[in-house]
Write a structure and sequence with these properties.
There is one protein chain. The chain is α/β, with parallel strands linked by helices and 253 residues long. The protein contains one helix and 23 strands. A hairpin with a 2-residue loop joins strand 1 and strand 2. The relative contact order is 0.08.
């Protein structure tokens, strides 16, 4: 009986060793197959070297390869690296919408519009937007830059049209010198003008210790009982680089 029992135990042990060997072989086969089959590599284990073609990993940031056909998503197991999704669309290009080719430019070197038809500024830089009619002399108190802009200043009262006193500078121009067609006192001309003054001296402009810089406009149709039908300067300055003084009258020149 003892021999029989011993033989049975020996057979059992041999059977178990055979099962163990078979199980080991099966596990080895499964392991080899898992390594050879595509797609079984865990996403969490992907590194830059494992990603084929479409995505390049640089300093833990994915950037698209221009040859990529499809967007690629990569998930990192590094807790310090956020999940990154990069998409590449070859057709997409930066587009610039041309909203305004030319920025707003202040009119005539930054001058403001003067819209009054019966008064004129005492200082500042302006361009006329209409003809101006005054019944008393215009006397600036500071530096004034005035663009006639093709419009006229007409005096209907008595005295000079303009008086420029000590410490005052009047810069007179006319950007609309070809605008309109006018005839005053038998003289035809275009552009802005100063007319209608009548004074003892300086019917058009009287300058006393001030400065008149004239680069445009026409001073015409003014009279003086003494001197300077158009312009009279006493201890002042007249700098004339443009414009016209014509058709004015005075008893003594």
């Amino acid at each position: 009986m003892r021999n029989t029992s011993q033989r049975q135990m020996s057979a059992t042990r041999g059977h178990k060793r055979g099962e163990t060997r078979l199980l080991a072989v099966l596990l080895a086969v499964v392991l080899i197959a898992s390594l050879m089959l595509p797609g079984v590599l865990a996403v969490e284990d992907v590194t830059g070297a494992d990603i084929a073609g479409d995505v390049t990993v640089v300093d833990n940031v994915t950037e698209p390869d221009e040859s990529a056909d499809e967007p690629e998503a990569v998930e990192s197991t590094d807790p310090d690296v956020e999940d990154v999704i990069q998409e590449y669309e070859p057709e997409e290009r930066l587009s610039v919408q041309d909203v305004d080719d030319e920025p707003d430019v202040p009119h005539r070197g930054g001058s403001a519009e003067w819209t009054s038809s019966n008064s004129l500024p005492t200082e500042g830089s302006y361009h006329l937007t209409t003809d101006v009619t005054i019944n008393s002399t215009w006397t600036p108190t500071g530096e004034v830059t005035l663009d006639l802009n093709g419009y006229g200043i007409t005096m209907t009262g008595s005295g000079s049209v303009i008086k420029v006193y000590s410490g005052v500078t009047l810069n007179l121009s006319d950007s609309g010198s070809t605008e309109g067609s006018h005839t005053i006192g038998g003289n035809s001309f275009t552009g802005g003008y100063i007319t209608g003054g009548n004074a003892s001296n300086g019917g058009g402009v009287y300058v006393s210790n001030g400065t008149l810089n004239m680069s445009g406009g026409t001073i015409i149709g003014n009279t003086a009982s003494n001197q300077g039908g158009g312009v009279y300067v006493i201890n002042g300055t007249l700098n004339m680089s443009g414009g016209t003084i014509i058709g004015n009258t005075a008893n003594y020149g």
